[in-house]
Amino acid sequence: xxxxxLRSHPLRAALAxxxxxxxxPRFTAPCRLMQIVTVxxxxxxxxxxxxxxxxxxxxxxxxxxxxxxxxVDLGGMKLVLERHTEFASYTFVREGAFDQPFASGVFDPxxxxxxxDMPGDVIRATQxxxxxxxxxxxxxxxxxxxxxxxxxILCDVAGGKARVxxxxxxxxxxxxxLLLLDQGLLRDEPAQLVLRIQELGNYRxxxxxxxxxxxxxxxxVSRLEARLAGLTASVSERVSQDxxxxxxxxxxxxxLARLLAExxxxxxxxxxxxxxxxxxxxxxxxxxxxxxxxxxDFTERRLTPxxxxxxxxxxRLADLxxxxxxxxxxxRTRIDIALAKQNRDLLESMNTRTQLxxxxxxxxxxxxxxxxxxxxxxxxxYLAAPAHAWKxxxxxxxxxxxxxxxxxxxRRLRQGLAE
Length: 419
Fold this sequence. Notes:
Helix content is about 60%, strand content about 15%. By secondary structure, it is an alpha+beta fold. It has 3 domains: about 170 residues, no CATH class; about 140 residues, Up-down Bundle (Methane Monooxygenase Hydroxylase, Chain G, domain 1), CATH 1.20.58; about 60 residues, no CATH class. The protein has a 9-stranded mixed beta sheet with strand order 2-3-4-1-5-8-7-6-9, sandwiched between helices. The model has no long low-confidence stretch (mean pLDDT about 80).
């Protein structure tokens, strides 16, 4: 067939395009790069997309709606726009020789104009200088002027094809500095290397956003934990009223639910970003240089404890929530048992009253038989009044028959009501 005429999945084109984003255009050393990463926060990814479109319009270009990735030629340098779920990045690439690796104003005025109204807050800003192969590495005196000596990270990457130098500190201009020495990189390898190193740093910073949140809320969790321990002891010792205990447990559970809702997304994002950072670290092929710490040393020394702190905080919060649920269930079970006992006692008292009422009713029935028999015999006496000589004998003879009839009548009536 000349062309594929079969029906395609609605997401086929988008998925195919997704595999080609998140990359830097090919460049060769010498080269300088500058990357700004902003956290979008509540503004969301839509604000970054709108800014990307506005940047393109100012440059006379057109971007498709909801563009996540674009490479813009600025004439002499390139701009790479990337939009992620929580952050956006702006990467400027300028090829060509340079004297000072981190001189200011290299990317102006275009960078100043583009970054002036970008949404979000800057979470990371980096200047990168890539020296070509065959260039002598900077001596120790030069490195001391570019980086803080005691914080210098120096190691080989990409299986020895490049060397990385940085202290990962903020400088007075607000940028971090990254110096790369090409030692045999080919074709796309310089761009891939820079991308991996930058993703390592960007994801690392995004992962660390969860640490201040965990540290800030840990005292609240400790307070709730101590309060839950007291409530659990009260439940076991029955030293308080159940209704007041249940009210306090309900309030504590609501506080725990609020903390879980406030932290669940950030803690989950921390774990995801940390895993991405470690994945990028593994792909860098780091080689140690005696006397210096490596990228792996620097990343794992602080990232791993921070992530474990966040994991511990999340686990502690989840465990506390589960324990609160167990205590609430225990208290509710005790209340249910107490209510069942009350209902049992009430039924027993009702049964006793019913038996008393039945006895009273039987007594009333006996008295009623006597009363009916009395009035019936009296009525017979009135009817036998003309026979003066036989009146009393007629009344005496009628007593057993009248009494028996009244008793049988009352018994039949009671049986009919029972049926």
